Amino acid sequence: MREVLRPQLERATTAARPLVRGRVSGVVGLSVDVAGLEAAVGETVLLGDPATGPVTPAEVVAVDAGPGGAPRLRCLPLGHAAGLAAGLPATATRRAPTVPVGTALLGRVVDALGNPLDGGEPLHAAPRAPLHSAPPPAMARARVDAPLGLGVRALDTLVPAGRGQRFGIFAGSGVGKSSLLSMIARGTAADVSVLALVGERGREVREFLEDDLGPEGLARSVVVVATSDEAPALRLRAAVTATAVAESFRDLGADCVLMMDSLTRVAMAQREVGLSVGEPPATRGYPPSVFALLPRLLERAGPGVTGSITGIYTVLVDGDDHNEPIADAARSILDGHVVLDRRLATAGHFPTIDVLESVSRVAGRVTTREQRALATTLRRVLAAHRDAKELIDVGAYAPGANPDVDAAVVAMPAINAFLRQDLDETTPAERAWDDLAQLAAQLTRSGGGR
């Protein structure tokens, strides 16, 4: 009985606490200093007087001692700082932030705080979960040993994903990350998809929902949106909100796909937050909190005790440099990486996946020996063709010098037909493997892949 009444008792205890107010003592850049109020890091503070005007929520990100040793809170408004001024009243909510979760969100588009953006019904009746939670214990997690079809031939056969895997899509701007993500959203075999659009252009959100995702994809998805013009605290919150929503489906026993576009913009938002509260800039201007955030966020995805979260994160590499700090840090944490090539994009080859540079660290556990042999045949032929490409282009290659190159030259139209796929085309994983088997047989007859 006590456990049943615990939530009501906690709410009653919180409501019975005396209301303590502080004051805004300063607004500098993105941060707001509050004096005369006690709160913990991560709690929400309300800035303003609800009796006289709108109230702006803010998240406590740092606590230190002000004049006379009194606590001073450094907060980041969950919105823009316009209208905030010194002397404005501030009230502590005395609780950590929560977000609506569960099946009530299916087919909905919400903002970083969980408020509907699609004009639908409010989500007041939806259950709520803490925004920040710990990942499942390492020894309690299930193993990644079952394949997850994504509907993209090149991925399902050459860079296969497993249920509960986390991998990144690495590319520069304008190479096709968002388009590939939309193909996966429509073609995945997962039960539920949760999409976080972080730092996207405002005009692209509706285009992505209506053209790329479509009504069928949206029906089994939850979309969390924070556009590029929103405050950095909201952009950062959107990534955490989407992760919390995905965790709720995982805890229900579902296999969920969490797609985040993009992880780089999450890191940029954390950079703005860190610098605004006084952190020193480190590698390429990123403060230490950015590199602490990435594993904390990414480890929340993956297999659980029941259910799983397959995390797919796009990484916008700076200047097409795949060894820049965020790309390098993400690659070291994730279970695989898919590299997109700008040269393929300019050649009209879509999806622009460079299969030779892409790796799935769980491929050996989610594919059979026969399937791996098929993939190896195609990879060997492609690698041989890449190494001899300059000789082939200038006419200096002598046929018969390398059977793999000979097979590639003959079968390149068939190889490209296999690797290319229309944006609105979905290929089941079983058919993709059948197509690869036919292609591998053709390569073997030509003397390649042996």
Short description:
The protein has 13 helices and 17 strands. By secondary structure, the chain is α/β, with parallel strands linked by helices.
Provide keyphrases for this structure.
single chain; 450 residues; alpha/beta; nine-stranded mixed β-sheet; six-stranded antiparallel beta barrel; 17 strands
List segments where confidence is low: pLDDT < 50 over at least 5 consecutive residues: none
Radius of gyration equals 25 Å
Report helical residue fraction: 25-40%
Judging from the principal axes of the Cα atoms, what is the shape? Answer: elongated
| Binned strand content | 15-25%
Question: Could you outline the blueprint of secondary structure elements for this entry?
Answer:
Layout: H1 2-16, E1 21-28, E2 31-35, E3 44-47, E4 56-65, E5 71-77, E6 89-92, E7 98-100, E8 109-110, E9 128-130, H2 153-158, E10 166-171, H3 177-187, E11 192-200, H4 202-219, E12 221-227, H5 232-251, E13 255-261, H6 263-276, H7 288-298, E14 302-303, E15 308-316, H8 325-333, E16 336-339, H9 342-346, E17 359-360, H10 363-366, H11 369-393, H12 403-419, H13 429-445
Parallel strand pairs: 8-12, 10-15, 10-16, 11-12, 11-13, 13-15
Antiparallel strand pairs: 1-2, 1-6, 2-5, 3-4, 3-6, 4-5, 7-9, 14-15, 16-17
Helix pairs in contact: 3-4, 5-6, 6-7, 7-8, 11-12, 11-13, 12-13
Q: How would you characterize this protein structure?
A:
The chain is built from 13 helices and 17 strands. It has about 450 residues and is of the alpha/beta class. The strands form 3 sheets. Strands 8, 10, 11, 12, 13, 14, 15, 16 and 17 form a 9-stranded mixed β-sheet that branches. The longest helix has 25 residues, at about 370-395. The chain is elongated, with a radius of gyration of 25 Å. It starts with a helix and ends in a 5-residue tail after the last helix.
